[in-house]
Every structure is written in C-alpha cells, then in structure tokens.
Design goal:
The protein contains three helices and nine strands. By secondary structure, it is of the alpha+beta class.
C-alpha cells in the first residue's frame, strides 16, 4: 500500500514523502493516527504539485543567490572605527556590522551567521571574508577598516 506521510515517522520517512508500507500497518496505525493518507489519484496529484512547487522554489532561491554572488564578488566594503594607540580598535568589527553594511549598500539581506571572517578584525587594515548565500554558493569580499 502506498501512502503519503503527513508527519515524520521514525524509521519510515519524513513529512511529504511517498512510501510503500504493508496493508495492515497503513490501515491500522498510520491512517487512524493521521500520520499518513492513502496515495489515491487526487493525493498523488497534490503530491506531484507540491514536489514541483518545492523544486521551483529551490531553483529560484539558487538563481537569486547566484545573482547576489555576481553583485558582491570581489567588492571592497569600507568601514570606520575608533582606535587607540598602535591602530588597535576599541572592540572589533563584527559579522553583524558587515551584514548591515551589505544591506545598506546593495539591499541584499545576509544573515550575520553567514558572514565568515577568516580572522578577528581588531586593527586597521584590509581583511577577507566569505559570505555564504546558499548551499554551495558563496562570495568573497574585502573589508577595509580605516580611522573614523
């Protein structure tokens, strides 16, 4: 018997998957507990539409990430900060500040956790960072820290 899972079922599959189960398991356990629905013609059509929709959303998200990568790749972001003697900053430049600067300059929303700094920015100078936009899509940027 083929069923479409409505919830995650341990050792069977995740929500939205089409799985083959024994007749008794499906009729006596999965269907009464509303963990799955029988894969009839209407349910299969809904399943295919949901899969196509999911694939489309993934494709558009990846295309957006590729476009953002072209925009950001190799750009230099100039940031200012106060420092003491020897060019040591009071505090540091954080990934949150870099994400805000990207949003301000290019209007691209980037989660601060997706900005990967290769080292802590605690002095004046130029630093490299990686912005992860999507799975397998990332842009390398430069951060130039100067005196305020």
């Amino acid at each position: 018997m083929k069923v479409i899972l409505l919830q995650d079922v341990k050792s069977l599959g995740k929500r939205g998957e089409l799985v083959e189960v024994s007749e008794g398991y499906g009729r006596n356990y999965l269907l009464p507990k509303k963990l799955a629905k029988e894969a009839n013609a209407q349910a299969m059509n809904e399943y295919r539409n949901a899969e196509n929709s999911k694939q489309y959303k993934l494709a558009t998200a990846k295309a957006d990430a590729e476009a953002h990568k072209k925009t950001l790749e190799g750009k230099v972001f100039k940031m200012t900060a106060k420092a003491g003697k020897g060019g040591k900053l009071f505090g540091s430049i954080t990934s949150k500040q870099i994400a805000e600067e990207i949003k301000r300059q290019y209007g691209i929303d980037v989660d601060k956790r997706k900005v990967v700094l290769l080292c802590d920015i605690k002095e004046y100078g130029t630093y490299s960072a990686e912005v992860k936009l999507y799975t397998g899509v990332s842009a390398n940027i430069e951060i130039q820290v100067s005196e305020q």
